[in-house]
Amino acid sequence: MVPRSGGMLPSGARVPLPSWLSEADLDIYAGKFARSGFRGPLNYYRNVDRNWELMRLSKELRSRCLHCMLPAIMTWLSRFPEQPSTSPI
Predict the structure, then answer these.
(1) Residue-number span of the structural domain to which 33 is assigned
(2) How far is CA 20 from CA 26, 28, 46, 79, 85, in A?
(3) At CB < 8 A and 24+ separation, what contacts does 55-64 make?
(4) Residue 43 host element (H or E)
(5) Where does the pLDDT of residue 46 fall: very low under 50, low under 70, confident under 90, or very high at 90 and above?
(6) What pTM does this model have?
């Protein structure tokens, strides 16, 4: 485990940044994580399989709902063709 008071690196050690990460970018990320911590990103990573499953189910439900509502929307628009901006979509 890494001690709370120290860190993984010796005090004052500098690690070279990769070419795709600037000091300004690193400062932004460090500020965000200092404010909110790592709990959210870690929980997302731990739950990534379930998130994919929920996204798949959500996509299936949305497609089923659209197939059910499409005839109703077309009927509604055929009755009120002069007001398409007030459609329920």
Answers:
(1) 24-80
(2) 11, 14, 26, 56, 46
(3) none
(4) helix 39-46
(5) confident
(6) 0.37
